[in-house]
Amino acid sequence: VCWMKVFCLQPAGHCSFTGLCFSPLQQSELNSFLWTIKRDPPSYFFGTIHVPYTRVWDFIPENSKKAFQHSHIVYFELDLTDPYTISALTSCQLLPQGENLQDVLPRDIYRRLKRHLEYVKLMMPSWMTPDQRGKGLYADYLFNAIAGNWERKRPVWVMLMVNSLTEVDIKSRGVPVLDLYLAQEAERLRKQTGAVEKVEEQCHPLNGLNFSQVIFALNQTLLQQESLRAGSLQTPYTTEDLIEHYNCGDLNSIIFSHDTSQVPNFINATLPPNERITAQEIDSYFRQELIYKRNERMGKRVKDLLEEYPDKSFFFAFGAGTC
Ligand SMILES: *[C@@H]1O[C@H](CO)[C@@H](O)[C@H](O)[C@H]1NC(C)=O
Ligand SMILES: *[C@@H]1O[C@H](CO)[C@@H](O)[C@H](O)[C@H]1NC(C)=O
Ligand SMILES: *[C@@H]1O[C@H](CO)[C@@H](O)[C@H](O)[C@H]1NC(C)=O
């Protein structure tokens, strides 16, 4: 991983990937997204994933959980328990005051988007599990929480929203994702917490795609959802795959794979040559902005923290896919 070059990390455990993981696993065969920064006291990097923690918790080895418990200070990419973070993320995703998606999008795209969201709203009650209903989570509430304000969102965020409004993803709502769960645990255990990124740093790069690129991406996303709806396409990539790779400790498949908070992969679609070029431009833009530049920025902040507090034990919990 890129961190190794900077900090000479040692894997704290290793799980050889054999293609498929069967549970129950031996402790030694569990995933290992923990790296130790050798100093006294030690600090740690832990690769998280943006899926319900209950799906991966049993696969996280004891050494990772102990490292978390013993650390003084826990750092995340963003502080998701801070109401300011949430409101800043929300407003960063909105169109400028007075603008509406209907004014911004080509008419055909707007119409298809509207139709797709109507379909999602209609289907949502049937997608939800008895377990979710038991917890008092209702389809109307969930739809509004995710998509309520869609007409005011910037197209790129609407695209990401549409990607997260699938049956599989809806079924997993209501349980905190692993990174959020760790943040809640850190709070419960009264650990000092912090974040290495500002909301704007995570949000602005996405807003930086130009108009034709965004329309292309939204069009591709809608085409994909329309094929799924028509039954002519199987879910091309699922959160299930991501969970399986994570639980197997298969970092290579996690890196650059597209987790739910990230960006869909258009390159492999069967596209005509000019559209393929646009897809590649978008992909390399995201890699540059969301992976390489972020790594550098985050790496520098980590280094500064470690130098400033040499007697503290840090636990850095960052998305496994962002390194
Ligand atoms: C968007 O960016 C691409 C690649 O940099 C460029 O070819 C295209 O002309 C730009 N489109 C607009 C509308 O600025
Ligand atoms: C959407 O994509 C399809 C297939 O690539 C293309 O034919 C169509 O013109 C696109 N629509 C818009 C509005 O860009
Ligand atoms: C494209 O699809 C092929 C076959 O499904 C797969 O082997 C390859 O890794 C994919 N490439 C990308 C960039 O996703």
How is this structure best described in words?
The structure is a single chain. The protein has 323 residues and is α/β, with parallel strands linked by helices. It is 52% helix and 8% strand. Strands 1-2-3-6-4-5 form a 6-stranded mixed beta sheet, covered by helices on one side. A hairpin with a 5-residue loop joins β2 (34-37) and β3. α5 (107-127) packs antiparallel against α7 (139-147) and α11 (199-207) packs antiparallel against α15 (273-308). The longest helix has 36 residues, at 273-308. One 2-acetamido-2-deoxy-beta-D-glucopyranose is lined by residues 265, 267-268. It holds the Pfam family TraB_PrgY_gumN. One of its GO terms (molecular function) is metal ion binding.
Number of strands: 6
- Outline the biggest β-sheet: 6 strands, mixed
- Which residue ranges are poorly predicted, with pLDDT under 50 across at least 5 consecutive positions? 1-25, 256-262
Distance between the termini: 7 Å
Level of helix content?
A: 40-55%
**Structural class of the helices, strands and pairings?**
alpha/beta
Small molecules (ligands, ions, cofactors) in the structure: 2-acetamido-2-deoxy-beta-D-glucopyranose
Strand content: 5-15%
Radius of gyration: 20 Å
Mean pLDDT figure: 82
The general outline is globular
Strand order of the main beta sheet, please?
1-2-3-6-4-5
State the helix count: 15
**H-E order:** HEEEHEHHHHHHHHEHHHHHE
Cofactor: Co(2+); Mn(2+)
Keywords: Cell membrane, Glycoprotein, Hydrolase, Membrane, Metal-binding, Metalloprotease, Protease, Signal, Transmembrane, Transmembrane helix, Wnt signaling pathway
Main location: membrane
EC number: 3.4.-.-
